[in-house]
Amino acid sequence: MIVLGIESTAHTFGVGVITEDEILSNAKESYRPEKGGIHPRKASDFLASRAGSVIRKALTTAGAGMEDVDLVAFSRSPGMGHSLRVGSVAAKTLAYEFNKPLIGVNHCIAHVEIGRRVTGMNDPVVLYTSGANTQVIAFQGGRYRVFGETIDMGIGNFIDSFARYAGIPFPGGPRIEELAKKGKYVELPYVVKGMDVSFSGILTNLRQKLKKHELEDLCYSLQETVFAMMVEVSERALAHCQKKELLITGGVAANKRLREMCRLMCKERGAGFKAPPMDLCVDNGVMIAELGLKMHKAGVKGEVNIDQGERTDEVEIKWR
Ligand code: AMP
Ligand code: MG
């Protein structure tokens, strides 16, 4: 069975083509604002302008035509309305024109499912760390439950916002990781509330410290503090759910220090730790195809309307 998956929740238009056994292609284009954050209309204009070429590239690389595709999947939730609409229209146009079944999927759960597929981990706690999302997810009682999450901004948006105040262009994460290597510790607030984390107060605190400290020191302290917060919550989720594996995903999973901290925590408690290859950690169409495939095989019809705010734990899981 050949599945074409379309990702379009925020800044990336991604198309993946897969079968049960193979990932055939993973094409994508991402919107990069010249300055400031992501402007919703500009992002969606960009996605629409690239949709056709990314679809063509994914099919060509896969050596398939639309007539070979058995199912079209797209990210219907959660995300930015403008962006979601672009992927939804692209998927519907293909499905209706070529008379293929269509399935809408949840983006966050797609990150989890592609992680399970490529790492071989069956039942991990998932630390999902991206621009807009920061969630600790585990499968419990028939659903993917959110055991901990940010109560304000996502970890990546937090890092990018600090970077912007410090004059570093988007995306700030890689540059902050570089600078952090030369830094030493400056005390910052540490904000874990039960199982949840909060970044906005730390951002304000860092902003106030900008002129008074070396940027390297602030970058180092930022990483040590907020990564420790997320690792602490992940560890508690592992303990509470009695799970034996941690999977990290999302764009911030590129960070080597975050991975190292996860690895150390897991080693100390005898748990496994893995991350998918980076091109499957960031937003991509392959993960959408993977979740579409699993849902379709489980007989789930799947909504085809978009939903900006659907939560991970609202989705009924019939394929596990
Ligand atoms: P996503 O939303 O999953 O596409 O991830 C994008 C986010 O990942 C942006 O906020 C980036 O700043 C962040 N990011 C990328 N590379 C790194 C890195 N090496 N360290 C920290 N954050 C990163
Ligand atoms: Mg994502």
Secondary-structure arrangement, i.e. CATH architecture of the largest domain: 2-Layer Sandwich
Bound molecules: adenosine monophosphate, magnesium ion
Q: Separation of termini?
A: 20 Å
Named CATH topology of the largest domain: Nucleotidyltransferase, domain 5
- Number of strand segments: 12
Tell me the structural class: alpha/beta
User: Could you say which overall geometry the principal axes of the C-alpha atoms support?
Assistant: globular
Rounded Rg:
19 Å
Share in β-strands: 15-25%
Number of helices: 10
Describe the structure.
The protein is an alpha/beta fold and 320 residues long. It has 10 helices and 12 strands. It is globular. The mean pLDDT is 97. The site of magnesium ion (MG) has 6 residues, from helix 3.
Describe the secondary structure blueprint for this structure:
Elements: E1 3-7, E2 12-18, E3 23-30, H1 40-62, E4 71-77, H2 81-98, E5 102-106, H3 107-119, E6 125-129, E7 134-140, E8 143-149, H4 155-165, H5 173-180, E9 192-193, E10 196-197, H6 200-209, H7 215-241, E11 245-249, H8 256-268, E12 272-274, H9 278-281, H10 285-297
Parallel strand pairs: 1-4, 4-5, 6-11, 11-12
Antiparallel strand pairs: 1-2, 2-3, 6-7, 7-8, 9-10
The chain binds adenosine monophosphate and magnesium ion.
